[in-house]
Design a protein that fits this description.
Layout lengths: L5 H7 L6 H7 L3 H6 L8 H22 L5 H12 L1 H10 L10 H5 L6 H19 L1 H9 L10 H4 L3 H9 L7 E9 L6 E8 L2 E8 L2 H15 L5
Antiparallel strand pairs: 1-2, 2-3
Helix pairs in contact: 2-8, 4-5, 4-8, 4-9, 6-8, 8-9, 11-12
Length: 230
């Protein structure tokens, strides 16, 4: 029995004319291998989707930010199409719930694995492109592109510490300091808590599995409290 992807189509806001394209886009290689020759994996669609994503994002940045030099445009595009960003986009459309995985991949958490979700996100882009054309694919992709890119370039990379430093540097007399306030848990699974201070005043707190991650989360909270979207 063929799976019903109507709920996923509702989330996408797209009704596929060729349902096989969507089926293929959501078919991981582990699933295709189990089905032998009955089903192809999404790897070929992922290849095409990567190119469609790149041209759509490139054109959008080129037209939206005419004053940015090539180097800056390249950095922003890289941040928008990296695995971390595509994984986040995939979560927004609950893509993992609809993936077709082999039994082994399902049992080992493949439905939540960032690389699998990012690849499937690109495959879905290709399926939309083949089924409905470039403009439909463009509309789908641009749903995920933030509108305030010039102000948040460091944030696109998840580098909240650099973004906070760029904000603070506007006032050279200001000093930012990260202070480790606690660590807990066994050695193999510690949790660190950090405060970020501006001139000795706490402006954000964060926790993580490493000091570096905790510092990033503290900087993220500080930026949000300052009114910056992260």
């Amino acid at each position: 029995m063929e799976p019903d992807f109507s709920e996923f189509e509702q989330i996408l806001g797209i009704t596929f004319q060729n349902k096989d394209l969507l089926h293929e886009a959501l078919s991981h290689s582990s699933y295709a291998n189990e089905k032998k020759k009955q089903r192809r994996s999404n790897e070929r669609l992922e290849f095409l989707g990567d190119s469609v994503l790149s041209i759509v994002v490139s054109q959008h940045l080129f037209q939206s930010f005419p004053d940015l030099p090539e180097g800056e445009l390249t950095k922003i595009r890289a941040a928008l199409v990296c695995e971390k960003s595509l994984h986040r986009f995939a979560l927004q459309i609950r893509l993992g719930e609809f993936l077709l995985l082999g039994k082994g991949e399902t049992h080992t958490g493949g439905r939540e694995r960032p690389s699998i979700l990012a690849d499937a996100f690109e495959a879905v882009i290709a399926a939309i492109y083949l089924d409905a054309g470039l403009e439909a694919a463009r509309a789908h992709i641009l749903r995920f592109i933030p509108k305030n890119i010039p102000e948040n370039r460091s944030m696109l990379f998840g580098d909240y510490k650099t973004a906070l430093q760029e904000v603070i540097q506007k006032n050279p007399e200001e000093k930012v300091e990260y202070i480790l306030i606690s660590e807990s848990g066994p050695d193999h699974s510690k949790t660190f808590a950090v405060e970020v201070c501006l001139n000795s005043n706490v402006i954000g707190k964060g926790s993580g599995r490493s000091k570096k991650e905790a510092e990033q989360m503290a900087a993220k909270e500080a930026l949000e409290l300052m009114g910056y979207e992260t």
